[in-house]
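Sequence design from tokenized structure. All designs in this work follow the same two-part layout: the structure record, then the generated sequence. An example of the structure record is given first.
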């Protein structure tokens, strides 16, 4: 039988053990991003080596974006139209990477706030055709865009969700025009 002092001591000990296990659980990687490697933690204080890990992660994301949109193909195609179009491709690529690599609470698109993770997810789905569609719209139209960065972000986000549908609808419309001629 424990006396009052021994029971109180045992209670304090068990609460300290629970507190330590809770702190250890909080130190575990709770990141929504599975690519963060917890092996880069400093064993002495349990904190992440921030700059190296973030740079590696950003480099990975930049490579993923470049591969998804076939950046080299886009630059080759743009180079046939001049240096300004290559710079446009670079600007689009950098805009995507800025949103994907720099965490924030929200991203405002067309006066609506979206969670950064959702926007990041959508932008990582962009491919060559999406970027080509955007470039064609920018080059072929006199858009008089006042805030190019906001326009690119909203267009990239929208294109990531509807690019394939819009492309298929355009092909279908072209085919119908071919079949029936130009009735108007």
């Amino acid at each position: 039988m424990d006396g009052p002092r021994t029971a109180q001591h045992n209670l304090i000990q068990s609460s300290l053990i629970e507190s330590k296990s809770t702190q250890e659980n909080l130190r575990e990687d709770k990141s929504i991003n599975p690519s963060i490697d917890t092996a880069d933690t400093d064993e002495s204080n349990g904190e992440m080596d921030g700059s190296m890990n973030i740079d590696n992660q950003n480099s990975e994301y930049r490579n993923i974006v470049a591969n998804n949109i076939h950046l080299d193909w886009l630059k080759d195609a743009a180079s046939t139209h001049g240096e300004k179009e290559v710079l446009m491709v670079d600007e689009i690529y950098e805009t995507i990477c800025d949103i994907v690599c720099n965490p924030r609470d929200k991203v405002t698109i067309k006066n609506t706030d979206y969670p950064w993770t959702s926007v990041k997810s959508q932008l990582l789905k962009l491919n060559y055709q999406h970027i080509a569609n955007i470039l064609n719209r920018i080059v072929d139209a006199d858009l008089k865009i006042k805030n190019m960065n906001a326009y690119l972000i909203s267009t990239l986000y929208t294109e990531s969700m509807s690019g394939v549908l819009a492309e298929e609808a355009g092909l279908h419309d072209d085919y119908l025009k071919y079949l029936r001629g130009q009735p108007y």
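The beta strands are 106-109, 112-115. We note this feature because it recurs in several other targets discussed in the main text.
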